[in-house]
Design brief:
With 269 residues, this protein is an alpha/beta fold. The protein is built from 10 helices and 9 strands.
């Protein structure tokens, strides 16, 4: 059994064939894929979508959506987390975090929504799913200021020291399609050397396509597109297995157990 710990199944890219995407995931052995919401206007619709499909979800405001977010969105998030307190499909607050790569985002505004959502996660006893993009140290500073029940640092690609700091705070680190590129030397080193208890798998579908789906800049300019989906997870896992010298069965067992440890509502695994 595989768990995709980060999949935007609610994204518009899946609108034409959302149900076939789910069926392909199940056929590939991906029994669960966690759907993190990125903006308040999608909370209710994505919650309903996931409940109908029996798939886990998280509610949060992504840093890229902070320009249009309002404090009333935090109030809505607080209310919906409370109303779903007994919903086993609600597994985390997320996707939240900080993005210091995309130009034009107000860092103070990002910090405001990040810290306030950490407070909500702590209030409701939930782990968090973190967006980490050139922001690991700032995220860690926030977690030391507002402690939460661990979670996942999604698409992590920081230093070994930063990785260890997240691990000590109860986090697992998400590895996905980027790992399949031979030039991803830092990422591959992390996947090979970190404690096995720190590793979870993800696709970030429809984004971060693995090497076999990647389109060059020229192909994209010509209109070609690649769309990642959760059914790709077992093949992504083969890269991790090769780096660690594991069987695919052991890779599935380890990463599933890790996901269920840091996101306890996923249990039983």
């Amino acid at each position: 059994m595989w768990i995709d710990t980060h999949c935007h199944w609610d994204a518009p890219e899946f609108a034409p064939d959302r149900e076939p995407v789910r069926r392909r995931a199940l056929a590939a052995g991906v029994s669960r894929f966690i759907v993190p919401v990125v903006q308040a206007c999608d909370f209710a619709a994505t919650q309903a979508l996931c409940r109908a499909a029996g798939q886990p979800y998280a509610l949060g405001i992504h840093p890229l959506y902070t320009p249009q977010a309002q404090d009333q969105d935090l109030t809505l998030l607080d209310r919906m987390l409370g109303e779903a307190a007994d919903d086993p499909l609600l597994v985390a607050v997320g996707e939240i975090g900080l993005d210091f790569f995309v130009a034009g985002l107000d860092p103070q505004r990002q910090q405001h929504f990040y810290v306030e959502q950490l407070k909500l996660a702590r209030r409701h006893g939930l782990p968090v799913i973190l967006h980490v993009r050139r922001s690991a140290d700032a995220l860690l500073a926030g977690l030391r200021r507002v402690s939460v029940a661990g979670g996942i640092a999604h698409a992590f690609n920081g230093s070994p020291q930063q990785a260890q700091a997240f691990i000590e705070l109860g986090f697992a680190l998400g590895f996905g399609g980027a790992l399949t590129f031979e030039r991803a030397l830092n990422l591959r080193r992390l996947a090979r050397e970190l404690p096995e208890t720190a590793l979870v798998l993800e696709t970030d579908a429809p984004d971060i396509p693995p090497q076999w789906l990647y389109k060059t800049a020229e192909q994209r300019a010509a209109g070609e597109r690649s769309r990642n989906e959760p059914a790709e997870l077992p093949q992504i896992a083969q890269t991790l297995a090769g780096l660690r010298g594991w069987t695919l069965e052991h890779t599935a067992a380890v990463t599933t157990a890790n996901a269920c440890r840091v996101l306890p509502r996923l249990n039983p695994c």
